[in-house]
Design a protein that fits this description.
- InterPro entries: Alpha/beta_knot_MTases, RlmH-like, tRNA_m1G_MTases_N.
- GO terms for molecular function: rRNA (pseudouridine-N3-)-methyltransferase activity.
- Homodimer.
- By secondary structure, the protein is of the alpha/beta class.
- The chain has a single domain, classed as Alpha/beta knot (3-Layer(aba) Sandwich).
- It has a 5-stranded parallel β-sheet.
- α1 packs parallel to α5 and α3 packs across α5.
- The protein starts with a strand and ends in an 8-residue tail after the last helix.
- 28% of the residues are buried.
Amino acid sequence: MKITILAVGTKMPRWVDEAYSDYAKRFGRDIALELKEIKPEKRGGGVTAEKGIAAEHERLIAAIPPRARLVVMDERGKNWTSVKLAEGLKEWMAGGDDVVFIIGGADGLSQELKQRADVLLQLSAMTLPHGMVRVMLAEQIYRAYSILNNHPYHRE
């Protein structure tokens, strides 16, 4: 199974890259976790938030692999526990599905992309820095993977 995180934003602080990499390398052979950074649209000079979101939408759509489950991160999405994420991961693996998690840019994501999502998922009701979302999402995916493999990383 391949899990891709599409994240709008580039040039993250070193601690973000290091923390993300630490979790990404923990998976076994049955899951590959990949991060694809999507160039954010520059704001200003007549580029409104709406135009920026539209441009980022096109870049995100182009980066989504065919036939992948789409999980869009949104503060208004479902509030799953780590165990519920593990159940989702198990279902997706059983179906042979690859999964794409999408993290939007500073102004968010298009309504079209949110409506297209198989799951609209909340990481937190609070607004979080985009770099931190990458790290927290990678950690939660790893935690879900460890739950499925009875690894002692997760404790109830």
